[in-house]
Amino acid sequence: MQRFLLLCLAIAAIVWLGFSVFPGHSYLYGETQIYVPVMERLAQPGFLSRDLVATHPYVTYTIYDEVTLFLHQVFHLNFQMALAIQQVLCRTAIVSGIFQLASAAGLDDVFALLVAALFQLGATLAGPAVSTIGREPTPTAFAFGLVLLAIGLFARGRALWGGLFGGMALLYDARIASALWIAILLLIVFDRKLRPFFKVALAELLIFVLLLANLAQLQPGAAGSQITWDRIPEWLAKLQQYRTSYVWVSSWAKQYLVQYVAIWICAVWAIARIWPILNRQTRWFLLVLPTAGLLSVGLSYAGIELMRNMAFAQIQPAQNLLFTVAVASISCSIAAIRAARVQMLWEAMLWLIVVFAIAINSSIFDFLRPADFHQAGAILLCLILAFGLATLAQRLAGSLLSVATFLPPVVAAFAIPALLPQTVNINVTPLNQLADWAEANTWGSSLFLFPDSPHSLEPGYFRAQSRRGLWVDWQGGVLADYSQEAASEWLSRWKQIDFSRFTLQDLEQLLPLEVDYYVLQRSHALQNVKPVFENSRYVVYDASDLQNAPGPLRFAAVP
Q1: 440 and 401 part of one domain
Q2: 3-state secondary structure of 92
Q3: Distance from C-alpha of 477 to C-alpha of 480, rounded to nearest angstrom
Q4: Are 113 and 144 within one domain?
Q5: What are phi and psi of 527, to 5 degrees?
Q6: Which of 239, 290, 520, 543 has its CA 20 to 30 A from that of 109?
């Protein structure tokens, strides 16, 4: 019991550090700008009835919205808290699953926790634009955490529980969970010895597939968001390449694919080093999943760019590269600790270099020839972290521990955030003031437009916080991957506001649109029209006041 409590405390501490400190979490800075308005409209159909994003949901094949709405309506939680609870639980699933996997590989509790903690550093995949530790509470992030927990439970011989969490992952995001279940199906077909072990998981799979199908049929608005196998027309292909280029492998493969092949080689090499300490099912998962992730790139290329099939753009198979990177990080961590335990310091250090290089998004080939001082700093940081942690693991294995051993990795760890791309920050105080005013003083079906902030994240944040629709915004362009109808309408609207530099003539051209309120930056305040709301950053004008302005519109100051 004491061991169990200590493990729970350790896992909770790792999750808390990852959630609150690094890599942290965010809300309404990414995909949640699309999901939250959809759920707001499902909860209260009177709101956002004219918003392009809210009226074209793509949450048909996920339980994400049902669980969030359940927490929102039954426990009266706001959407931010409802999603945060799920995010914390799925982060806990990641740590617990990797701990179970490392324990199944024969590591002691302290070292298994160390492997889980190293994975919590996270990694953002350049190209497919996904992360092993997602900052945003999205279906993909939730499903990935549940898959890792399922793998850990399978590795420990708990097939019933592994199938349960693998099935839950399927409900959250079938695209991510499918890699796990394909590996299990292949195992059942080709490995007779493990076939009885996974029979119960196969039964659970059938149950969860039927449940997902039933939930999809009951989904409000499902008719407009089904997977379609239509051919991608040329105009839509160009739009996707412009707005969601990460879906098209050709836009990033030349730069990043060799790096992912190198990561896969490191994963296989590390698995070969720890092969004797792995049980049969763990070997299977660690070999099949990273390979499936790499092959998913070819599948995505064939489906989207050769066959031009809309379904592949909706499914986005290349996101499964997550498993290639994740397994590489885990297997290299285990190989490093195994080497340290047998006093092979330099081998342990080399494996840890790969782990930290993945965490700071540094290409493995950068170590051969750094291109600039930033890469040189990243390489130096990896070397310091790898040497310090390898030394620490070696001394822990030999029961010779000193305070000085901790200093290099601990001090160097503080430099990790400085070497990563900075996340975009939004000044939320004036946005929240604007959202509160809109919610209190405008109709639920009102349409707003931010004509001088076309590429900003601010309009999407406002939409979710105010429950008021936007005529068009940059984030809404992700609909190009899911609906031809929505993509066509978004493109038509976007062309009208995508200005290189906002002018009075541009504003006058927008006045005939079906927009109720125009939100301008403070620097673009008008001289001869009184705003209906203003604060330190924004001025809001009623469309009728602009249309009936006394004389030509004029800026109050030169912008």
Answers
A1: no
A2: helix
A3: 6
A4: yes
A5: -85, -40
A6: 290
Q: Which two tokens mark 406?
A: 């901790």
Q: What is the largest CA-CA distance in the chain?
A: 84
- Structural contact between residues 465 and 451, judged by C-beta atoms closer than 8 angstroms: no
Same domain for 470 and 529, yes or no, is yes
- What angle separates helix 139-155 from helix 174-190, to the nearest 10 degrees? 30
Length reported for the chain = 559
What's the rounded Cα separation, in Å, for the pair 144 and 369? 34
In a domain, 8, yes or no: yes
Distance CA 482, CA 487 (A): 8
Q: How far apart are CA 137 and CA 68, in angstroms?
A: 11
| 3 state SS of 489 | helix
Encoded tokens for 135: 């900052």
**Residue 76: how many other CB atoms lie within 10 Å:** 9
Measured in whole angstroms, the distance separating CA 182 from the mean position of its chain's CA atoms is 22
Q: What is the CA radius of gyration of the chain?
A: 25
Instruction: Please state, in angstroms and rounded to a whole number, the distance separating the CA atoms of residues 158 and 161.
Output: 6
CA distance 557 to 524: 7
pTM comes to 0.93
- Note whether 157 and 266 are same-domain residues: yes
Q: Which residue range is the domain that position 540 belongs to?
A: 428-547
d(C-alpha 361, C-alpha 379), whole Å: 11
Is the bond into 23 cis (omega within 30 degrees of 0)?
A: yes
Specify the residue for token string 């409000």: 220
The 3-state DSSP class for residue 129 equals coil
Q: Which two tokens stand for residue 522?
A: 């403070």
Considering its fold, how many domains does the chain have in total?
2
User: Are 501 and 539 within one domain?
Assistant: yes
- Mean pLDDT per 10-residue run, the chain (559 residues)? 88 92 91 95 92 90 95 96 98 97 93 92 90 95 98 96 97 96 94 92 94 81 65 96 96 93 96 96 96 97 96 95 97 94 89 88 64 68 76 65 45 55 77 97 96 93 97 95 94 91 92 96 93 96 94 78
Kind and range of the H or E run holding 380: helix 373-397
